[in-house]
Amino acid sequence: MSRSLQLVLAVTLTLLGLLLLLALGTYQAGQVHGSSPAMGNPLGTAGAYAAHGLLRAWGLAAVLLPLVVLGYAVALWRDYDLSSVGRRLTGTVLLLPALCGLLHLIPVSWGWVQDLLTHWDQLQFRGLGGALGRLLCGPVDPPFAGGWLVRWLDITGAAAVLAIISVGALLMMDMGLSTWLRRTVRSIRASAEERDDPSSARRVSTSPFVPSAPPVPKNRHTTSIHAVADKLKEISDAPLDQGAEALLERIRQHQRQVEEESRQAASVVVANQPEPEAEPADETGIPSAEPDAVTAAAAPAVQRIAKPTARNKTERVDGKPDGYVLPPVNLLEANKVRRDVEHELEKIAIGKAIEAVFADFSIEVAVVAATRGPVVTQYEMKLLDQGLRVSKVEGFEKDLAMKLGTEGIRIVAPLPNKTTVGVEVPNKIKEAVVMRELVEAIDPAVNILPMILGRDAVGKPLVTDLAKCPHLLVAGSTGMGKSVCMNAMICSILLFRTPDEVRFIMVDPKMVELAGYEDIPHLLAPPITDMTKAHAALEWACQVMDQRYEALKATGCRNISDYNQLGIEEIRARLDKKRLSMDDLPEAKDRMYYIVILVDEYADLMMVNKEVEKSIVRLAAKSRACGLHVILTTQRPSADVVTGLIKSNLPSRICFRVVDKNNSRVVLDVSGAENLLGKGDMLFLQPGTSSPVRGQGVWLKDSEINAIVEHAKKQGRPEYNEDVVKVGAVAQEGGGSGGKGAGGEWVSDRGFHDAVQSMYRYNKTGADFFRRKLGIGYNKATAYVEQLEDLGFVGEQKSTAPREILKSWDDWIELLKENGVTWEEGDDLYRNPASLGDA
Prior knowledge:
CATH class of the largest domain: Alpha Beta
Largest sheet: 10 strands, mixed
Strand content: 5-15%
Oligomer: single chain
CATH superfamily of the largest domain: P-loop containing nucleotide triphosphate hydrolases
Number of helices: 28
Number of strands: 14
Helix content: 40-55%
């Protein structure tokens, strides 16, 4: 449901609820019974009869209907999670008769009850529960006309049953009753303890699993609970001769210092903060690990973003100088407000269970902190036995999984830059990671090609810059989140960059994954589904890479960023010094845009043509400085697909759940991906690091993707470059093969030229024809046919029908000249077959 529709429904329900309350509150019997003088309802006849019907049916319990309507209006307005509407409505349906019965048990002899029934003219029901209340708990008068529960359970039993049903119904409605009850019990218990021992109210608990009394407010940027306790002890131990005024001044000074530290910490990026040894306690009483223990050793490619400022939110939707307007953030859906009152107790229980598992093996540990993320919670565990080897702890993943009854547990021993061990345990109540709040946290000026990946294990934004990666490999089994991740990366760039800043080449062997991006202005070519054209596109990218390096060399620039800062006049001036012009260098433009090459299923591309690996390796090894970046995905991360050359040139890798630890080692060089939960649970290996970071991938709905794509299409049409998918580009000078390597042998193969001459002379093609006519083997003849198809001269094989000849003889001659092939004037091999006649 869109946010605008939610607001409309919220306003509508609010008006309906208020009107019902007004009708019920002003109802009198004379409004419908024709009394003299006649009475009127503020809502007219309709309001009077509506109130009359509701009160006769349900009595005073009719007020529940407008209250429920107003409750759902508030939930829609505040964007609460309404995913369990059926359960909540069922609770409402159960609560109504239970409330009617309980109201009917109130004695009619009470004066206010008698007055209210007289006011409504409902004395015949003999109770405040209306007709439904009388049916359940009315007087048992012969002949039997009501009071079913009272007849069988007596008044006491009926009241107990109805009370139990009411409590169960309220729990099903999830209106926060459990939180209220828990707080009430805690308050009563605290009051009793203070009454029995007044000094207990001033004690500070040292156990990480016992919440402090009074509770410490949740603040991730203040000093830790232990530091506060130490400071209080220091103050309390001060000599008495300081005087009350001096003691009060010390307390005030410490409070000002804490507040100043909080303001400073909130204004900087979390990744740049030094990591304290202990951190503040969260609402469970377990100190939170802050900053993130797993991702503390962040490489430059990943930023932990601080709270967004108003400037960040407005800057990104401003128009660009070229007139292109970036998509507004309101195209994305906001996250639902979840009321997870259970996660406090869950942290405490799991922390104790972790300690118990290690205690069973005579290993003393203490859980000293817990930080909750959207899908997993990271528990920091301190080893109390100083002689214990850290490597011994890593083998307890399966024991913990069995004890806790869950999968997906991961042990990080030790945590980077810390003296503790991290234990990542899946949450029972998981939260979706939405794009909108992450987009609002990004400053576009920080990243060149920002890509939103999701949130890490402790809930910090996981955002990377593709320009610093500089290439990315995404692997994982089917259905684990690869396609969602790629869509998120594409949309991230579309949200922050214009077509003049970045262009895409998309290779889509599945034909449906990237089809939705067709016709966006950021494309250099339509999504490529023909694998022969995919090879040509990669070769074209190699050619562009070489041309851009020539332009960088001629202008004295080290990378594309330096080049783009020169300006057209400076570029021309530098070229003039070397006696060059803009026409001498094809890629010498006023600005170079970045090119992102996406291959959705690399393994399928490898099966069609293994030569593509050479082009990808060449791009990955050299193209970073000139603005070309490669993203590969594969669902078969085996050693023959993700080869050593690929891994060495793609240092940034994302791995979703795989079938076994061997596949995990192929992608990440370490095991662990086989224990992930799936559905976006991933490990991200940053460049320059050996320990992957666990995170939850962002969830991007199809409606959000379509909204971003439609906005981009409205800004302009794509300017496709036909050379990208021109199959002849594989042999052009300067490409990945250059016409002399693999894929360009046909340029100098006179036997292949003879095959082309025969094809046009006899208007026939096919492996059998070439084998008979040229006297060659079947394998070579088949290779000639495939080469002609790659060059676009013959069509695809369709059943048993002969292949169609797509281009003319003049096109063949023109292609030879483009590739530098020369011949003597009398050479019959290059004469038009029409002038030779039939043999």
